[in-house]
Design goal:
The protein has 719 residues and is α+β, with helices and mostly antiparallel strands. The protein contains twelve helices and 35 strands. The strands form seven sheets. The chain has an eight-stranded mixed beta sheet, with helices on both faces. β32, α7 and β33 form a beta-alpha-beta unit. α3 packs across α4 and α6 packs across α7. The longest helix has 27 residues. One of its GO terms (biological process) is proteolysis. Its EC number is 3.4.21.-. Its main location: cytoplasm.
Length: 719
Amino acid sequence: SCVGLRNLLQGQSFSVKYYSRHNHLQTVCLYSKIKQKKSHIVDCSGGTCTHRTMPPGSILPWRLFSCKEGTKIPSKRKQNTSIITSELLYKDLVKSEQENWNDISARYKAMTKRIKEKLEELHNKYMFSSGNPRIRFGENVYFEENGCIFLSKADDGEGNADILFSTKELGFFDAFIQRVRISPDQRRMAISLKSENSEEATCVIVKLGQFPVMEKVIPSVFSFEWATNDVLYYTSQKNLKCQHVFMTTFTNQKRTELVYTEQDARFFVDIYCTKDRRFLTINSNSKTTSEVWLVDCRHPFKLPALVQARTKGLIYHIEHRNDELYVLTTYGEPAEYKLMKAPVASSGMENWQLIYALEKKTKLVDLELFSDHCIMFLKNACCLYLNVISFVSHSVQTIKLPTWACEFQLESHPEHTTSTCYFQLTSPVHPPKCFAYSFKENNLIEQAVQEVPIIMNCHTTRLLAKSKDETLVPITVFHNMNSKELHRKPLLVHVYGAYGIDLNMSFKEEKLMLIEEGWILAYCHVRGGGELGLSWHKDGCQHNKLKGLHDLKACIMLLHELGFSQPKYTALAAASAGGVLAGALCNTDPELIRAMVLQAPFIDVLNTMMKTHLPLTIEEQEEWGNPLADEKCMKYIKSYCPYQNIKTQCYPSVFITAYKNDQRIPLTGVLRYVQKLRKATLDHASRTSKKGNWIPNIILDIQTNGSHCDSSWEDSLNE
């Protein structure tokens, strides 16, 4: 779920695999991809209501996962021969891997059938508890289900609703709805549609009425907002980048104009509408620096006004209330988020006045601004709580949330004058449960809208592992309360540790299935992620990346020491950039685990960061460093890069899922990693040919459907 300023804090989430693999996405940010079949609608603020937690400072998911491979363009004299040879080798490798996968997967048909039936059962049992994300406009309620957008009255419920839009009826058979924006007068609706096999979305504008009409189609759009009833602002996307903002009108004199262009390749541009609809904000962000321009919705044709010129290391986001800008920013010490305010007319940081500063090692997940209150959704030591700030009494109230809760999922964007804030709490093994905070009653209400089966037999434990430099690293552990002899139970360890993204800890049917079958689940919140605030990320990126590896090792060792399983029953799961730490651990400490499962993994950091022609390399230098300009950086990356450090030794078994249409991690790099890893394991086996010597399985499953960030429920289930 991405609502309110979370769109800016954590990215525009859009059904991100693993999380966001978010983020949005997000986390996906990124984990398992079993998703609700109907959860692709977005709230009216900007992100889809599915997974994930995205990091403050990494504004959009395009930067959450690197484009991981690519080859240098050869000279013109040799180009044709090289390309033909490369393509033939690539096709042969893909064919060979697919044949190998077909042979191996055939052995697991009975197990696959059992697991699939169990997951479908759990999905049908729990999916209703999430409900349909909604957009409320006075008495009207807009919601999405199965590729259609419906309109109902608030009192009528979903049973009595009119259909406004259908992807299939308009010929968009392979597309899902990514986000929706309703014009202020509710006469137009902008919808972005996205296919599973592409990262570019198409924006469709529908004129509403008795017979809704498709009025305009805009290709390659990322974010968009209505400035007025008939003026739409949007960003265009090309090669995973957004650097242009356009304005298009739906008046009698239709026109489209370029409004803003970002010149710096490290920055990504998106649009957000303040909650009171007073301003559109054009947000240009790198991983460490941001700049915001304001479009006055009362005068949408005027040039945007700069809030504060970009200053290296300064991140800020803007909301508006009562003719004042509310600035969420890292300005000042310590470099964590603070809520400040300034007059609209003099918005420079010299005029920012502090309202509230976060405590050390606290993660700001989201912020919602209301007419008289502000709610901060916070995480500290992986426990969730709310801070309710009153602008009237100037007081701050802290609300602790249930200890089992691991993730917030906010309801659709509420009106800023509402007296109640709705949200859901969830964990990997707890389906979303509805809560509300009432400003009038000044208390938290647990809602029982639907009878959600309660998970009673799962125990949640929070631990702290001492890393190599004495830093305490949080671990969240789930296991069946009825399990005996935990040291004999299988353990699945999760890790990410990049971009300031939290591990995705929203509900997943397959996690609950594992708990029911006696597994232990452990989530290692290592440095490089965002669980303990911005400093936690900073302490695990660039020249600190090895700290995340040390954290992961300390976490697994502590789990074993405390009797949670043992190495021969331990598996490690990671996706996208999480593959860096998982793959590195396999090289340095393979004896700690028996198996590793990777999903679209980033496993060759060095070669990727040496290739500046790739669309994301330059902007990712703030996460990994620039090996081309800094020899020390090149040596440091080489010291932990999974692909560079494969050696002849005994490895755990490895299962990798890759995607033919993945624009961020092309298949060529994954194929190269698998080939090198197989050779190392076989060489080790031939040198140590002892009786009963164990040769690990190195398995690659190449998915023809899906991409780095999206797949349908059916494809996720099959995978």
